[in-house]
């Protein structure tokens, strides 16, 4: 009898799974490998709690087949004299590889996914059993000179493998139906019965926060393995349900790692081609301008809206302002981020899709229920430890996807964070500011953050006096995120506390927090009025101080500030000019070109004294010729 269609199509198999016999196997080595493979399968534990009987049955049959291989190895000449026997060995090797792959995949994967695939996987176990029966049926047993006991054993295995249909455990099927009923309730915005939810999770051996967190990670891996968008959407619904159950059944969990932010970790070295030439940050939405150069959409849009009609990288006038999506590069960046287990979300919005995955009503409602439960808990007077755990859980949700970020803001979490930003507890303050950073990556949330009384001031205060460098860096990153909106950039740029806080962090912070401060300063420098405040605040000297450590960021800031009215300040700072010249001599090609462009602009506008100062620097002329010869069009034009 044919099995019912599975809930999801089978996922991609793990790369280590083989479905062929290695070409370098001799006949004797093949038989030895069959014995070792069958023994490996025999040593596996049956699956639990799902597919227990199916897995135990095929493991037991394989254990009996191993006895056959042991007997054949005692007299290999006889078995290799038969070409049909060798062919059977080759096919048996393939089938047994599929058996071990299936069991290991089921053992290491998501329990929820296993339950939803119950009927399909039961059929797969049956198909492999039938394949074993077929191969043993055509195996020339009587030509192998086997002893009578082994011949009887082969007959017994064949009989055991001749099951007419797949066995589907009725208990597993009942559990699957209960889960689907719960999905239907959530979809209809009905809060599920917590006792029934606890029963389902107990039967799946998901009995604490840790096991639920592991289950969520396994489901996230399944999303990457699946190719069908509808199936991805359904797995995301499973993730939403597990998140909800983890909170309402087992309470909030504590951090497993120290990585908090939604944006990629600053300590990683990103491929240079993945970074936007303007913001120096990872491109979320790579687009191509008229000159053929690629930028992040938000950065190049802000550049154009500021009144520029040239390509920032080449200096060429743009023939048009159309932005063409660089889909190939975007896919490469997304793939690289998945390999590094980093969150990567584009800035595109679509009514049907979130991050390329079809939205799922059940997943969205489960997310709303989870967020509502946590935010309500945060509004009630709690112990400091409970508050810390709730905020950590919300921070983890804010990192997940745009639906979670929208739900958290809509549930009224932002006003509750104002007081937490001033907390003397480093972990609590850090989670609060990081949650705001994560929420700010969603465009609609930027307005909510700016309009929430006291929230911007709280972020600025963390920037200036935060309890940890990480909290300060995330406050700077939040400033950077908010200033993608032109009106907010002007408002924030007028705040002297922001300017001073970013300057201090850029000079005194850790490597990652310095970079957060510098990219925020670079974004603010795009506004002419703010560029003047940056000059007044000492941006030239600051850039000179950090140029040895972070030359690309420092030089790019100088280039932007000089073009926004900071020429007089840099022309008067020969120390900074000499550092620029040094970067021109020993820096990377991309930084050399930015330094060259800055120096050329200074020479054009700075007068004969500045030109003479540059000309006196050793080997400067030779370096300029090298940049012209080997650099891009921008370097040559400089």
TrEMBL record:
E.C. number(s) listed in UniProt: 2.3.2.27
Known catalytic reactions: S-ubiquitinyl-[E2 ubiquitin-conjugating enzyme]-L-cysteine + [acceptor protein]-L-lysine = [E2 ubiquitin-conjugating enzyme]-L-cysteine + N(6)-ubiquitinyl-[acceptor protein]-L-lysine
Keyword Coiled coil: yes
UniProt GO molecular function: ubiquitin protein ligase activity
Transmembrane portions of the chain: none
SMART domains: ARM, Ubox
UniProt xrefs under InterPro entries: ARM-like (IPR011989), ARM-type_fold (IPR016024), ARM_PUB (IPR058678), Armadillo (IPR000225), PUB12-19-like_N (IPR057623), RING-Ubox_PUB (IPR045210), Ubox_domain (IPR003613), Znf_RING/FYVE/PHD (IPR013083)
Ranges: ARM repeats: 412-454
Domain U-box: 269-343
Record GO biological process: protein ubiquitination
Coiled-coil segments: 209-236
Pathway: Protein modification; protein ubiquitination
Domain of life (superkingdom): Eukaryota
Keyword terms: Coiled coil, Repeat, Transferase, Ubl conjugation pathway
Protein name per the record: RING-type E3 ubiquitin transferase
Organism this protein belongs to: Nyssa sinensis
